[in-house]
Amino acid sequence: MRVRDFVRVPMPVLLVSRAAPERVEAKVTKSGKSRRMPIADRVLSLVEACADGKGPDELLFITKSGHQMHASPVKRTVHWSTVAPGRRIHDLRQTAACLWQGKRVDPVTVQSWLRHASIATTNIYLHPLGSSADRTDLARLNALGARGVRSRQQCAMTSMDPCRRCHVSAGRKGSHGESRLSESNR
Question: What is the rounded CA–CA span in Å between residue 122 and residue 104?
Fold first, then answer.
């Protein structure tokens, strides 16, 4: 990434148009398209410091010795094998997507930032946090507190199937943690 790829106006972004994997010549991105990655205020001053005093064709992110920043020096610097054992640098994309979702960034915007052709691909990254409907329904359940909880014994005393009355809808879990199953699946 070059200094010219850091754009400040109308908002600070990094233009990602090339990939430069370690020990490989720079090439176009996998999709062949460029993308604009907005820079959050909390990291803007760090990016500005990297750009200060450099010409537009100079590398934006470099090592202390002035070489292009690649995964290996980053991993060494942050002690990757200790802080992120078994993880890849690429896993930071999913972390970022989940953090953005947690901050209520629109999924279509996340799709654009990650440069996914399909929202279905983005949803693969976002599923660990659940949907806004999940969060709303969970808040509703938590607001019920103990008043809405039925014990297994109370369920068994009903004339219906022992767990059926506790379940709000198919696929949800009952108050005692059992998945809703049909009689044939028990």
Answer: 14
Asked if 73 and 142 sit in the same domain, the reply is no
- C-alpha to C-alpha distance for 16 and 61, rounded to whole angstroms: 13
Q: Cα(180)–Cα(170) distance, rounded to whole angstroms?
A: 6
Distance, in Å, from the CA atom of 51 to the CA atom of 57, rounded to the nearest integer, reads: 11
In a domain, 51, yes or no: yes
149: left (phi over 0), alpha (psi -120 to 50) or beta: beta
Tokens, residue 103: 């901050």
Would you say 40 and 113 are in contact if contact means Cβ atoms under 8 Å apart? no
The domain containing residue 147 runs over which residues?
Answer: 132-185
User: Does some domain include residue 121?
Assistant: no
Asked if residue 170 lies in contact with residue 182, where contact means CB atoms within 8 angstroms, the answer is: no
Averages of pLDDT over each 10 residues, the chain, 186 residues: 91 83 70 81 94 94 85 87 90 86 87 87 73 72 64 48 40 43 40
- pTM for the whole structure: 0.57
